[in-house]
């Protein structure tokens, strides 16, 4: 029963739109900047929407691919997760230590419980058809990185960084959550869901273990580098992670080559979202080399919205409508979300934000315009998700009324 998780993900996506609007107003100095707005935006997408989808969907995908009965709703996990998220999303913008620590602890408990649930989903013999491509190991690994990222993030308020000898704790926290948690979780979701929305299998299923290990070890290198202040680890990690991500795209794209009808806006959203994900591959060598020709530190510190909106959120533009239709409107054909307009405005926003990093004199206008285009791209998606949710709620109400009438006949 993923509906409670999907509802919460929908609420957080709605808050993302409001946070983007707040970014426009503060960027143009119409309203004052409050608290840590940039961190709030990041966590609304990663800890909010992405974690809710993962918690609701991962057990169902694992049991389906392994031929197991669908698991019961674990309300204890749901309560731990959402109580923790509420405290975090209040504590982050207000910079309240007690709320951040308590919220991080509750989320950590929820993640541990979900990992245990996924580990326990082991049949006597997995289906040979799906054994090589299932995303279970991706979910367990991604969630494990989320625990590490949460520990480092919470430790920023408790002095753990000094005790653990973390050279750059914020960078470790960001790398763990983005390259560790988000990237590996999205790879697992893409591999599990691809055959159903693309109506064809992935190419080269034997490549899946290579993708898993290169992304997993790559994320480890990206964490170890800033942890011990060893740039070589960061570079090796980035190369490994990038190779795994490229291989993932290859096995996704290859079956679609030559089929023009398959290249819908939703497919383009999925694939081109990785354009913004790969940008750090270009930026990282400049940071390592400490180049002075470009505002490298500004790019490193302020480039987060490109990853959050251009990559993760755009990935969600495609998958979220498909999932909501599958669960809330099962009698309707499920397709990847997105339109040509959402595709164009999403990428235009990314280009404008990227321009703002290199041209400080255009920063305010370029960033405000970027957030404006991102809001424009997401409104139809968000409207469609609410419509699917209302249809699902209405169907449940009608079923309950029918049951009540039958019981009273």
Structure explained in plain terms:
With 409 residues, the protein is an all-alpha fold. The protein has 3 domains: 1-123, no CATH class; 133-263, no CATH class; 291-397, no CATH class. It has 15 helices and no strands. It has helices at 3-27, 37-65, 75-94, 97-120, 136-155, 160-163, 169-198, 208-228, 231-253, 265-277, 279-289, 296-302, 304-328, 340-358, 363-407. Helix 13 (304-328) packs parallel to helix 15. The two termini are 29 Å apart. Residues 126-133 and 294-300 have low confidence and may be disordered.
Question: Secondary structure elements and their pairing?
Answer:
Blueprint: H1 3-27, H2 37-65, H3 75-94, H4 97-120, H5 136-155, H6 160-163, H7 169-198, H8 208-228, H9 231-253, H10 265-277, H11 279-289, H12 296-302, H13 304-328, H14 340-358, H15 363-407
Helix pairs in contact: 1-2, 1-15, 2-3, 2-4, 2-7, 2-13, 3-4, 4-5, 5-7, 7-8, 7-9, 7-13, 8-9, 9-11, 10-13, 10-14, 11-12, 13-14, 13-15, 14-15
């Amino acid at each position: 029963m993923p509906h409670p998780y999907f509802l919460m993900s929908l609420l957080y996506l709605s808050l993302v739109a409001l946070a983007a609007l707040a970014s426009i107003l503060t960027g143009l100095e119409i309203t004052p900047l409050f608290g840590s707005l940039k961190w709030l935006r990041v966590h609304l997408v990663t800890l909010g929407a992405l974690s809710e989808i993962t918690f609701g969907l991962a057990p169902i995908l694992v049991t389906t691919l392994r031929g197991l009965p669908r698991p019961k709703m674990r309300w204890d996990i749901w309560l731990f997760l959402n109580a923790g998220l509420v405290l975090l999303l209040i504590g982050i913008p207000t910079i309240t230590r007690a709320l951040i620590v308590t919220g991080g602890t509750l989320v950590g408990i929820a993640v541990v419980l979900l990992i245990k649930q996924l580990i326990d989903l082991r049949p006597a013999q997995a289906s040979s058809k799906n054994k090589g491509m299932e995303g279970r190991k991706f979910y367990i690994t991604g969630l494990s990185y989320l625990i590490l990222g949460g520990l480092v993030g919470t430790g920023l308020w408790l002095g753990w960084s000094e005790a653990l000898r973390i050279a750059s704790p914020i960078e470790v926290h960001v790398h763990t959550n983005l390259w560790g948690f988000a990237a590996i979780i999205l790879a697992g979701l893409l591999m599990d869901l691809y055959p159903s929305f693309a109506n064809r299998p992935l190419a080269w299923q034997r490549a899946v273990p290579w993708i898993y290990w290169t992304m997993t070890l790559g994320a480890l290198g990206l964490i170890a580098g800033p942890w011990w202040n060893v740039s070589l680890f960061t570079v090796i990690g980035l190369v490994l992670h990038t190779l795994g991500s490229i291989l993932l795209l290859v096995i996704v794209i290859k079956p679609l080559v030559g089929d023009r009808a398959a290249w819908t806006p939703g497919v383009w959203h999925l694939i081109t979202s990785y354009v913004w994900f790969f940008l750090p591959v270009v930026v990282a060598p400049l940071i390592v080399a400490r180049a002075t020709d470009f505002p490298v530190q500004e790019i490193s510190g302020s480039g987060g919205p490109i990853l959050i909106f251009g990559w993760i959120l755009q990935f969600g533009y495609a998958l979220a409508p498909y999932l909501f239709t599958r669960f809330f409107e099962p009698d309707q054909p499920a397709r990847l979300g997105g339109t040509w307009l959402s595709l164009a405005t999403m990428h235009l926003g990314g280009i404008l934000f990227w321009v703002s990093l290199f041209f400080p004199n255009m920063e305010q206008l370029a960033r405000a315009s970027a957030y404006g285009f991102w809001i424009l791209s997401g409104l139809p998606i968000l409207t469609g998700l609410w419509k699917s949710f209302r249809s699902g709620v209405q169907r449940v109400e009608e079923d309950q009324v029918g049951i009540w009438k039958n019981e009273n006949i």
